[in-house]
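Researcher: Quick test of sequence recovery. Tokens follow.
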């Protein structure tokens, strides 16, 4: 152990020279065979990363544009649906008004028809009543005449002449 203690940290001798020569050769070999290919790989990787970042940025912008377009489409669809609903309500209101008018016209027509029927029935009833009243008056007159004629034949003939004269005037 003592020998190790007496040894210098760095000894300048032939071994040091060979170590330095080995180091320079290794650096040259690494530079010649490994540094250029590794540099190419690193540069290629840098370009791929840069390209990926640009593509990601373009995709982000495209996604943002698509989002804005989708929001616009949703807004337009809502406006269109509101317009359709408004038009449907308007058409329903117009249909309701048309149905109400038509119903009113049919009711008026039915009322007029009913009034006409009532007038016809009233006229028919009047005619029937006149006819019955005439029949009753004639029967009554016949009875009265028979009675009068049977009681007094001269008075009866006088009444009959009077009746015939009045009947002739009426016609």
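Model:
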């Amino acid at each position: 152990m003592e020998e190790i203690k007496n040894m210098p940290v760095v000894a300048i001798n032939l071994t040091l020279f060979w170590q330095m020569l080995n180091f320079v050769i290794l650096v040259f070999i690494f530079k010649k065979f490994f540094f250029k290919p590794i540099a190419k790989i690193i540069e290629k990787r840098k370009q791929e990363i840069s390209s990926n970042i640009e593509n990601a940025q373009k995709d982000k912008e495209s996604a943002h544009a698509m989002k804005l377009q989708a929001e616009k489409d949703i807004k337009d669809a809502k406006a269109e649906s509101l317009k359709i609903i408004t038009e449907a309500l308007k058409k329903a209101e117009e249909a309701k008004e048309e149905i109400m008018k038509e119903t009113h016209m049919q009711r008026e027509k039915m009322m007029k028809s009913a009034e006409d029927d009532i007038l016809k029935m009233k006229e028919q009833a009047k005619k029937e009543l006149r006819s019955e009243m005439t029949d009753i008056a004639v029967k009554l007159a016949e009875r009265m005449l028979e009675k009068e004629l049977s009681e007094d034949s001269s008075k009866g003939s006088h009444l009959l002449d009077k009746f015939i004269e009045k009947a002739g005037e009426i016609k």
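The radius of gyration is 66 Å.
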